[in-house]
Amino acid sequence: MKIARAFRDGMRRVNGATAILAGVYLVTVLLSLPLAAALRGMLEDHLGHSLAAEPAAHSVNYGWWQEFSSQAVGLGATFVPSIVGFGATLRNLSDLMDNRSLPTVVAGAAGAYLVVWTFFVGGILDRYARQRPTRTAAFFSACGVFFFRFLRLGVIAWLVYFVLFGYVHGWLFDGLYRSVTRDFTVERNAFAVRAALYAVFGLLLVLVNLVFDYAKVRAIVEDRRSMVGALRAALRFIARHPGATLGLYATTGILFLIVVALYALVAPGVWSTGWSLWRGFLIGQAYVVARLWVKLLFYASETSLFQAELAHAGYTAAPVPAWPESPAAEAIANAGPMGRTF
User: Fold this and answer.
1) Residue 323, class by beta-carbon neighbours within 10 Å (0-12 exposed, 13-18 middle, 19+ buried)?
2) Contact present, 191 and 199 (Cβ < 8 Å)
3) Does the N terminus or the C terminus of the chain have fewer Cβ atoms within 10 A?
């Protein structure tokens, strides 16, 4: 019941703040435009006025594509057939689980996106915790207040992920996997072992992500300044409510898998001109919006669960406080006899 209630409440919070979803989508698009423009310039320069230009504009010219890929470097090296349709999703997952390095320009763009997301997540969580419109000034004020705190938390997260991908991943797939499968003669048995190791490594990533999610939630709701303290508090909360926290994360994760599966069913293949091109574009953008919606649902539902379990129910009454009272101050005000007079 706790999981279902938090999940439904999280959906209500996300759907009640459509401006956040629209803003996150807009930021994602704006950050991707420079890369798209740069890649377009590479393709235009390579095609020029060659005979391959017109066929490539109307359909896939595989011969030209192979020629372009053979000489491409940096961002151009990412323009491969596997980016078409659902292949891009599988490629990203494969790159993550196999710890493949990104081209420098792509890694830089990803880093910039993480910094921008770190700025906005404070305002997003604050809005979901308050369950009322906070307006532009208050939203960006919360973003600014928590930005440097979350940057410190991000440094800790980077160190943890560095250990996971730099050492644990190598031990699992370069050490343990080779040791276990050294004498295997059947390929499917080796694949089963690798799949099991993928599951183990994926579970580690989920647990780490869960801890840092609740650290952010506790920092926002309780107005914590120490990110080490927020991490400890997150670990205590997860340890005291393992079924609810893991179950809620799994429930939202299943919804994400459903979104991915639906996209796999309708994802376009090679686009041509006209309506087919626009249809493929709209399907792709709808998938981006759905994926961002689920990402926000993780935060909103986790915030709901935390507030419900630690007796912050009065916080949901949400009278209008004088800014910049913290979510913790608002919770106290709601719980007190003077709460309804604010």
Assistant:
1) exposed
2) no
3) N
Residue 18 CB-density burial (10 A; 0-12 exposed, 13-18 middle, 19+ buried) = exposed
Question: What are the tokens at 309?
Answer: 């379990």
Contacts of 101 (CB under 8 A, 6+ apart): 107
Please classify residue 76 by burial: count the beta carbons closer than 10 Å to its beta carbon, then call 0-12 exposed, 13-18 middle and 19+ buried: buried
- pLDDT of the residue at 65: 62
HSE-CB of 310 using CA atoms within 13 angstroms:
22
pTM: predicted TM-score of the whole model, two decimal places: 0.78
- Provide the H-helix boundaries in 310-335: 327-335
Spell out the residues 6+ positions from residue 3 whose beta carbon is closer than 8 angstroms to its own.
Answer: 244, 247, 248, 251, 305
How far, in Å, CA of 252 to CA of 6, rounded?
A: 11
C-alpha–C-alpha distance, residues 151 and 129, integer Å: 20
330: CB partners within 8 A, 6+ apart: 130, 315, 318, 319, 321
Close Cβ partners of 297 (under 8 Å, ≥ 6 residues apart):
10, 11, 14, 252, 255
* DSSP assignments along 153-207, one per residue: HHHHHHHHHHHIIIIIHHIIIIIIHHHHHTT---HHHHHHHHHHHHHHHHHHHHH
Percentage of the chain surpassing pLDDT 90? 41
Query: Rounded CA gap, 138 and 126, in Å?
Result: 10
CB atoms within 10 A of CB 23: 15
Pick from 103, 74, 78, 98: nearest CA to 88: 78
Contact call for residues 165 and 99 (beta carbons, < 8 A) = yes
Q: What is the pLDDT of residues 3-21, one digit of tens each?
A: 999 999 999 999 999 999 9
Handedness of CA 49, 50, 55, 59 (dihedral sign): negative
Count of CB atoms situated within 10 Å of the CB of 57: 11
